[in-house]
């Protein structure tokens, strides 16, 4: 390696170290830094403690009771509750149902909302602004107000107590259309016009040019759609009659009511339902945070 390359590398290292030291000095100048960190740690403990307590209670012997809260965190411990619930209950089936319903709902919602938003944003047709106003009005109507007519429609199509009845009514997302429409509006017009002049059809324009640019918006919508479908209770509770088709939000209250006077079995069932969600959050933490921040930023 030549002397000039070595000198250049040394200059870069020195500049990087100076920048790092400047950042550390800037952080140390904040007189409230320790207070902020302490408050953050206390808030984190406040949110994490119920999860830790749930996990400890779930590994206690069945029927265990105490008047001293400290005893929940001390031996004896056992995994027999997990084995018993996994083998003798429908919780794995409910977990599977929730996963399938949430995944299919998310995929269909992304397809429909992206196509609708692209049409309203980039295609020219009559009354498109009037149609967009209807999507805006859809945000103003509470979901509970549409439950009865929605139930009657699903019942008329004989989709009560089926996966189709769980999924199809949930794929309409006015918020997704509005977010994607605003994103598609920001695509440079020069790119759209040049693609059309080159003979690109609207479908190719959507699939090969606009959609790849909309990955952040699509990720945000996918995250919120999946979480909303996973946590949805009211519609599955009304539209599902068979226990084999219950989702977790419906099945867990039914399971817990059987052990209304006990702690261990309900906590074990809740732990089994929560562990996959916790693992998924740890894996996709960055994407979830980006999705939340994206929905609050224009442009």
Task: Describe it.
Residues 95-284 form the ABC transmembrane type-1 domain. It is found in: Cell membrane. Keywords: Cell membrane, Membrane, Transmembrane, Transmembrane helix, Transport. Pfam families: BPD_transp_1. InterPro entries: MetI-like, MetI-like_sf. The chain is mainly alpha-helical. It folds into two domains: 3-84, no CATH class; 85-295, Orthogonal Bundle (MetI-like fold), CATH 1.10.3720. It is 73% helix and 0% strand. It contains 15 helices and no strands. Helix 11 (215-231) crosses helix 15 (285-295) and helix 13 (248-258) packs antiparallel against helix 14 (264-283). The two termini are 46 Å apart. 23% of the residues are buried.
Terminal residue distance:
46 Å
The number of helical elements comes to 15
* Secondary-structure element series: HHHHHHHHHHHHHHH
The CATH superfamily title of the largest domain: MetI-like
Domains (count): 2
CATH class (first level) name of the largest domain? Mainly Alpha
Radius of gyration: 26 Å
The chain-level mean pLDDT equals: 81
Total count of strands: 0
Low-confidence stretches: none
What characterizes the major β-sheet? none
Question: Can you tell me the overall shape?
Answer: flat
Estimated share of beta-strand residues: under 5%
Within the CATH hierarchy, at the fold level, what is the topology of the largest domain?
MetI-like fold
- Architecture of the largest domain, CATH level 2? Orthogonal Bundle
Helix content: over 70%
Coarse structural class: mainly alpha
InterPro entries: MetI-like, MetI-like_sf
Transmembrane segments: 37-59, 94-118, 130-151, 163-184, 205-227, 263-284
Pfam families: BPD_transp_1
Domain ABC transmembrane type-1: 95-284
């Amino acid at each position: 390696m030549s002397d000039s390359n070595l000198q250049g590398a040394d200059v870069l290292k020195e500049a990087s170290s100076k920048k790092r030291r400047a950042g550390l000095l800037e952080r140390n100048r904040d007189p409230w830094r320790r207070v902020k960190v302490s408050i953050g740690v206390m808030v984190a403990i406040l949110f994490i403690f119920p999860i830790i307590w749930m996990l400890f209670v779930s590994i206690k012997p069945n029927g265990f009771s105490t008047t001293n809260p400290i005893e929940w965190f001390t031996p004896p411990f056992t995994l027999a509750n997990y084995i018993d619930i996994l083998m003798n209950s429908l919780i794995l089936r409910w977990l599977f149902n929730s996963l399938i319903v949430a995944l299919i709902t998310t995929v269909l919602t992304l397809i429909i909302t992206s196509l609708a938003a692209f049409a309203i944003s980039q295609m020219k047709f009559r009354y498109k602004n009037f149609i967009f106003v209807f999507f805006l009005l859809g945000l103003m109507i509470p979901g509970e107000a549409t439950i009865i007519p929605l139930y009657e429609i699903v019942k008329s199509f004989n989709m009560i107590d089926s996966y189709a009845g769980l999924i199809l009514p949930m794929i309409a997302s006015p918020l997704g259309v509005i977010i994607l429409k605003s994103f598609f509006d920001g695509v440079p017009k020069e790119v759209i016009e040049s693609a059309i002049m080159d003979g690109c059809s609207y479908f190719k324009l959507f699939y090969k040019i606009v959609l790849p640019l909309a990955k952040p918006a699509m990720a945000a919508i996918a995250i919120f759609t999946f979480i909303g479908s996973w946590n949805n209770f009211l519609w599955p509770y009304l539209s599902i009659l068979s226990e084999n088709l219950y989702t977790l939000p419906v099945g867990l209250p039914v399971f817990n009511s059987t052990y209304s006077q006990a702690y261990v079995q309900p906590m074990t069932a809740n732990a089994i339902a929560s562990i996959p969600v916790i693992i998924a959050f740890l894996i996709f933490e960055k994407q979830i945070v980006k999705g939340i921040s994206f929905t609050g930023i224009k442009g």
